[in-house]
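Collaborator request, handled under Task 6.
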Amino acid sequence: MCELTELTLKFDLRTIEHLGIQMYKTLPPVLAEMISNAYDADATYVNIQLVEDENNKQIIITDDGCGMSFEEINNSFLVIGRNRRKNDPNHSGLTPNGRKVTGRKGLGKLAIFGIATHIEIQTVKDCKENIFAMDLKDILDEKNNGIYKPQIIKYNEDVTCKPGTKITLSGIKRKNPIDIFDLKASIAKRFAFNVSDFIINISNESNETVKITNDTKWEYINSQFEWIFDNDHNDEDSFLLENKITGKIVTTKTPLPEDQRGIFLYARGKLVNSNEFYGIKTTTSLAYNYMTGVFYVDYVDDNYDSDLVTTNREGLIWERDELQDLKSWLVEKLQFVEKQWSEKRTQLKEDEISKVTGYKPSEWIETLPKRKQKLAKGWIDSIYKDNSIDENKAGELIDHLQMCLKFDSFDDMVTDLENSGLDEVKVLDLFKEWHLVEAQELYNLSRGRIKAIQKLEQFINEDAKEVPTIHNFIKEFPWILDPKMTIYKDECTYSTLLQEHFPENNEVLEEDKRLDFLCTGFGDTLYIVELKRPSCRISQKELNQLLKYHAFIKDHLIGTSESSYHQVASYIIGGSIIGNTEFNMQIEAMKTQRVYIEIYPEMLSRVKNYHKEFIDKYNELKQRDPINVG
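Structure tokens returned to the collaborator:
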């Protein structure tokens, strides 16, 4: 039998035109075919070198795969339309190293002619080197009658180098320089190889080099929330389990570019459907502007007899009955994530705003009269949904809203506010336009608070009892303790726990016994308050006891899964302090740990001064505008 010493490519001219030149007009899908071939050859790397020579622009693709023998070049590589998986005698669909074969239609070699007119292939296998070249102009010469003989440069030469393949593309049709980083991002989307021993490197003449792995596609995603889909997380999803689907959906902090939105589908490590939302009308929810993800659906490309992937592997053939269940499943998962996204964003934004305002807007809304809860909730929901409003601006808006909703006169502004479209500048202008009415209302509020302050002063002068007088007074007017605290949230569970853990000695005199603990929550902080009578003098003993309470709460309660509080502040309030300079220095130092000793006269002076500013501001406005300020 004569040894075969020539190569032959048999084809129809229309095949080269339609499946090569017309289908593959851009660089990324062409390189993707070369990378896929290297992967199927069990390579551990593929290097792509971009040569931007004006006179001889080239792309050189090198891999360390198994290479090709002369016979394999003729009987496999040069056979157009050969289904490698179907022709596999073992029908395993696996490479010798156990990788799932990505190639299927045998058309990838034609992709080269979409961007280049000349190709040279150097390949080594079993210590034999073969080099051959093909030229598009000669291939398309009608004189050949659909039979083309590639130029053989080297034939079965003995070599000692390792196996592998080098493909050199020249006659590049592209005129613009190739951006190596854009190319990296584009290629990364096309693969999802579930192996750690396959690396794609791209380099250029400027000594820039980029590496692509299976994680590269996520480098461009500023992830905020993530949903995992696999056996461990979705053990009741029968469709997922039956078809061995895995993947994840990610939402980002800011809207994604359009070319990143949607779900990519991969089968056998290769893209089979570009990012889309599978029929969902994305204008129905902002969530879809923030959503991307991947699903690995190998089963759609495992059947050798039924081909569900388009020729250029940009999409599945969704008209096929076999894919209807997959489409319905994808829509169900996307809608599930869309709903959860809204809930997660709302919770996160509230947590961020509560750090600015010192209170949770949702808890504040519950304290409002029913008729105002709807208005407040609608406004705050709008603030949460507006991504252009950060937590600081949102906190400012909600603080204004909180103050305004205390006053019935604010109802006159509702129509203007609702028509403003939540333009933060417009809204704040409306608030400022209302400053005269606000000043009047604040004045009335301050007058009410001044009466409360006068009542506190009376209690101090009369040495009122801690229980129930001062205790109930602080619960009614928590701003006496901290001006920001407008709502008292009774945390009696913590009070009880402290009482149980620190029982008092029965021998303690009645007048020296401490008050039942007053515990209240504000924002993410739990406040522990121990009140003494105005005649009580605070000494080192009381401070040491307060420190024990503080440490107990921090060590055993704060930050646990049962608690929503992350910080603790502890107070003891009495009439005066007994101690020397060292004791006073200790008191100052403990403030950094949020442990405080307050004395009634100083607290009274502070709240008087704080509310005096409202009175002064009102008087100033009244002098400037006596007609509008009543």
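The cover message to the collaborator said: "The chain is about 40% helix and 20% strand. The longest strand covers residues 118-125. Please let us know whether this matches your experimental observations."
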